[in-house]
Amino acid sequence: xxxxxxxxxxxxxxxxxxxxxxxxxxxxxxxxxxxxxxxxxxxxxxxxxxxxxxxxxxxxxxxxxxxxxxxxxxxxxxxxxxxxxxxxxxxxxxxxxxxxxxxxxxxxxxxxxxxxxxxxxxxxxxx
Length: 127
Description:
single chain; 11 strands; four-stranded antiparallel beta sheet; globular; mainly beta
């Protein structure tokens, strides 16, 4: 059974940085693309970033390009989201997610691409 566990959230001032981690277990991590999403109160869950299983491609929402970086360490079965220059509008619960299909080649921007989700970690950015 696939399990995803996020960590690293917290309270930070605007302009600060946080690094989120997502530890995966239950299958061969390196075969699967991974994504990060976020959800603010009263809003729909939205795409933040994704990284392909091949490590050749990364994808970002326009709102975070140039500020956030997604990476993965297949030796640790972990995907990271480095968040710099944080803004109050980045405040949300952040979730990591994984497709059920290995070597997934379709778009990673939609929640429909993902079958497994973590429990989320809260990021709060104060102004």
